[in-house]
Design goal:
Distance between the termini: 46 Å
Number of strands: 0
Radius of gyration: 20 Å
Number of domains: 1
Structural class: mainly alpha
Largest sheet: none
């Protein structure tokens, strides 16, 4: 049995325990997590289903631009999709639609798409809505340090992608490094303009996903010939999207229970590591929270010390959701990509913490 299969079985075990706990009145404290996973279906459908419906159209529009551009360095166009869009927000289906090499498509969809894309369309816009205004410069610094190590996480995670030769991996890291460097320079020179740009881009993705979902639903419910003539595959793709979303949701029903137990068990050792990095207790707890979901960490930021804020944001760029949404998403879509995804995210997150630790020594 492979490591990927072992992780799947562990999540299934927690899903079953959560289901039993719901039946006996939540005495084990896992019934809520079971429900939370199932209820995630709605949010996933809103962000993913619409993009899945229009992914072939987007791919047709983008290919004439992206293929020649990425071809200049020999990179696969699938890298473009998840450099800017999170895998579970539609980046994965778009990457797989753009992919010329299936192995690179998997790398883009599940490794890169769990680090770079989420930072741009989710982490930055969400953080801005939660953190205090005075903490925005610290957010920008944390994002900077986190972006620097994304290529390192992608490199190590890419080693474990089935069927991906090392030379091909290196070539496809080139555009990732270039985009990381450009964002780094932009955040350094014009942080407010860059952050505003990320917010606008995130909103555009939401609009596309919503319109795609509505269009597919209109086709599905009416069977209108005119609507079908515009884009024949809309209704069928929407059905497939709901199947994917449903699979991810039942996976999350187990993943969230696993996260709850892991957080309790690992809290003390991880908190000790956090303190050794020169952070207060809240900062240490933030690292643990990010493993499941970075929203909780951002809500805690106001109570962290300055160094803790920077280190937590740097860690969140790559490592957020590693045992939460991204584990559930990958397990539901492509179980053999669980190990590459987790290795990439942990390596990217840990190296970001080390970089932030050394660059904030004067602020300890």
């Amino acid at each position: 049995m492979s490591i990927n299969e072992i992780i799947i079985y562990i999540m299934v075990l927690f899903m079953l325990i959560g289901a039993v706990d719901k039946c006996i009145g939540g005495k084990l404290g896992l019934s809520e997590k079971f429900e939370e996973g199932i209820m995630a279906m709605g949010a996933l459908a809103l962000s993913m289903a619409g993009i899945m419906v229009i992914a072939p159209l987007l791919a047709d529009v983008l290919k004439p631009i992206v293929v020649p551009l990425y071809g200049l360095v020999g990179a696969d166009p699938s890298i473009f999709a998840t450099t800017f869009i999170a895998n579970d927000m539609g980046g994965a289906p778009l990457a797989l639609s753009l992919a010329q090499d299936p192995a690179v498509g998997n790398f883009a969809a599940f490794v890169l798409g769990s680090m770079m894309g989420p930072t741009i369309v989710f982490t930055i816009p969400v953080a801005l809505g939660i953190i205090e205004k005075d903490d925005r410069p610290l957010l920008a610094r944390g994002i900077l340090y986190g972006l620097v190590t994304v290529p390192i996480g992608c490199l190590l995670g890419g080693f474990f992608v089935p069927g991906l030769p090392f030379g091909t991996l290196i070539v496809n890291l080139i555009p990732i490094i270039i985009v990381s460097a450009l964002i780094f320079v932009g955040l350094l020179l014009a942080p407010n303009a860059m952050i505003k740009g990320f917010e606008v881009f995130g909103q555009i993705i939401v609009i596309l996903a919503t319109l795609g979902l509505a269009f597919g639903a209109a086709q599905l419910l009416t069977g209108n010939e005119w609507l079908i003539s515009i884009y024949p595959k809309g209704a069928e793709t929407l059905k497939e999207a709901f199947e994917v979303v449903g699979t991810i949701a039942v996976t999350l029903a187990g993943a969230f229970g696993l996260v709850a137990v892991f957080t309790k068990v690992a809290n003390k050792p991880l908190s000790a590591i956090g303190k050794s990095l020169g952070m207060n207790e809240v900062g240490a707890a933030g690292l643990v929270a990010s493993l499941a979901n970075n929203i909780a960490m951002f809500q805690m930021m106001k109570d962290m010390d300055k160094r803790g804020k920077i280190i937590n944001v740097a860690f969140a760029v790559s490592a957020s959701f590693v045992i939460g949404d991204h584990l559930g998403f990958t397990a539901g879509q492509k179980p053999e990509m669980i190990v590459p995804m987790m290795i990439g995210k942990f390596v990217g997150g840990i190296t970001a913490v080390l970089l932030a630790f050394f660059l904030t020594k004067k602020e300890a």
